[in-house]
Amino acid sequence: MSAAATTTTTTVPRGKLREALDYLLWFYTPFKAMSASDIYELVSTNAYSGQGLYLNLGYWKTARTIDDACVAMAMLVAETAGVGPATEVVDVGFGFADQDMLWMDRLSPARITGLNITPTQVRIARERVAARGLADRIVLLEASATAMPLPDASCDRVLGVECAFHFDTREAFFREAFRVLRPGGRIVLADVIRAQPDPRPFRRRVQAFNWKFFMQKYAVPEANSDTRQDYQSKLTAAGFIRARVDSISADVYPGLHHFMKTDPSMLRRFHWLARLPYRLTLKFDWESVYSAYDYVLAVAEKPA
Asked: Residue 37 needs a FRET pair 20 to 30 A away by CA distance; which of 55, 112, 115, 147 works?
């Protein structure tokens, strides 16, 4: 047979082609606006962590790996909230439920109700929770944090790990969280917000450009362009007391940046088209890359 007759053609499944096209349009062009649900459907199970399916940036105060840092962030939120055996928790934006299973293992709350608008995450998370035999104590709903299908005063804690910047809007979410919390209940959030404007004109313009890019690419409503002062004011306006919004950026961004520079394992878990922008950031120091963003731990209480 001729060489031409023995040549085979390798085809790429249509699903993979569509996935690559969606990444290309989302990351590299201004032509594809995506909702938060669309983004997480596309990212799917390409998790930050190697163990489990965590998608948070990690708390790096003592952690040295992304797996330890993701767990540390989840525990920071729950421990700050004072989650314990008698606590009924609402977890907004639960991802693949890694933090819910972690909290159940380590802190044994009475019940966790999770809310998430991304169908694939809800489906996979339910399967994982059921496989652990925890479906009677961790109930996962496909529902919005700004319109919770929960009764008034029905939980003790509302927690969120790196998700509230997507909510349309934070103010609407704060009102709902206040409604479903019992008197004396607490809200604790790990969240990404806008950094304080740099006094230097050029750096301030860079901040503004990067924040606008973040909003466009990661489905952040304009109304959520909050600084720490804005954030605290919105919590207070929703009825919360003792509101505190503390920056933990120094324990998030430097450790993450260093890890991505020194350990290629994290980037290898991303879709190949998603790796290039991250690799480009590694050519700069972390202060330049993250100058537009503050990472905060927000805590507030409903009056008893």
From this structure: 112
